[in-house]
Design goal:
single chain; 368 residues; alpha+beta; Naphthalene 1,2-dioxygenase Alpha Subunit, Chain A, domain 1; Rieske Iron-sulfur Protein; 7-stranded antiparallel β-sheet; globular; oxidoreductase
């Protein structure tokens, strides 16, 4: 891998894409799990669901079950795996006075310490203190909670912090957002295939009639910028949409938010803001083998949103997602065929994709 990285990076600089095998080979996916997801910040949920002592949320980081718990000292992250038979301790999201595994009732306190094990009193050389839940890093980025298995990774704030200022400039008050919904989904494409589609709007005028009617996607006004470990796209609402003169039926785009923003946080989190009433959605994209992706979407709104607006914007987002799924599923079938082995980017329109692929090569080729 390390020996092959230099020619791959040189090819990316010329506008050539990664070879098809990088999207279909299980060995590549396994290296991504180890070198990307287990060394990066993984979004697990909103801070608003961790207000009270005992509140918890669960998720995954590079296939590792993880949990974040609010205890008397603050937020604590753990590998959500019992030290006994490695059953997951917590499920979903909720509140608990203690953390009890549902397999054999090994019970931990909110700081991860093992406090009770049935029948352990008669077990020789068994010490509860030897088997706490394994701690991991848990940090907040504004109102969002992330975890990282890598103890040496830079902080989430140092990597992504400036995105909070960009979001604030859109008219969205992050601290006022209210969690509206969470929905899991599956797709038949590689996770990179899906994110590379997200990272360019070259296809928007062709494949997204509703989005194109709402947002001005012309290349001279729709901006795409890289910021190290995150990248951003921004567009203005079309005047015809504001005036209700669009030829395509849209949700109500008139409101406090006049600028659309679409942010990508390495390696697999996207944050979306659409014009209209204050809104924000988060999507998380996780590999399910090389040829499928699992994910979830969370929707947030400013206080006082009408149910009509909420439903119409969620439907708008789902329509765009369905259009994207049709594209990326087709791309994945082309990649599985393996001919041609590489594609050719337009470097002025797809530079965010190239930046993403460079980060993949550099991470996966790492020998550490």
């Amino acid at each position: 891998m390390a020996d092959n990285s230099r020619p791959l990076l040189a090819a990316l600089d010329r506008g050539e894409s990664l070879p098809a095998s990088w999207y279909t080979d299980p060995a590549i996916t396994e290296r991504e799990i180890a070198h990307v997801f287990r060394k990066s910040w993984n979004y697990v949920g909103p801070l608003s669901q961790l207000n009270a002592v005992g509140d918890y949320i669960t998720g995954y980081a590079g296939r590792v079950p993880v949990a974040v718990v609010r205890n008397e000292k603050g937020l604590a992250g753990f590998v959500n795996v019992c030290r006994h038979r490695r059953h997951e301790v917590l499920k979903g999201r909720g509140n608990a006075r203690s953390l009890q595994c549902g397999y054999h009732a090994w019970t931990y306190d909110l700081e991860g310490g093992l406090k009770r094990v049935p029948r352990s009193a008669s077990e020789p050389n068994f010490n509860l203190a030897d088997f706490p839940l394994l701690p991991i890093r848990a940090e907040t980025l504004g109102p969002f909670v992330f975890v990282n298995l890598d103890a040496d990774a830079p902080s989430a704030k140092s990597l992504y912090g400036p995105v909070l200022d960009l979001i604030a400039a859109s008219g969205v008050d992050l601290d006022a957002l209210v969690h509206y919904s969470r929905e899991e989904w599956q797709s038949g494409a590689n996770w990179k295939t899906m994110l590379e589609n997200y990272l360019e709007c070259y296809h928007c005028a062709v494949a997204h009639p509703g989005f194109n009617a709402a947002i001005d996607v012309r290349p001279d006004v729709y901006t795409l910028k890289t910021h190290g470990h995150f990248s951003s796209q921004s567009g203005q609402v079309r005047p015809a949409a504001l005036e209700g003169k669009s030829k395509i039926e849209l949700y109500d785009v008139a409101g406090a938010v006049t600028q659309s923003q679409y942010h990508f946080l390495w390696p697999n989190v996207t944050i979306n803001i659409n014009p209209g009433f204050p809104n924000l959605s988060i999507d998380v994209w996780t590999p399910n083998g090389p040829n499928a992706t699992n994910g979830f979407s969370e929707q947030f709104f400013g206080p006082g949103v009408s149910e009509d607006f909420a439903k119409s914007l969620v439907a708008f987002n789902k329509q765009v997602a369905a259009e994207d799924d049709a594209l990326t599923d087709s791309v994945q079938r082309g990649l599985l065929g393996g001919i041609p082995d590489t594609g050719r980017f337009l470097t002025n329109s797809e530079h965010l994709v190239i930046h993403f692929q460079r980060m993949i090569v550099e991470a996966v080729s790492s020998s550490s």
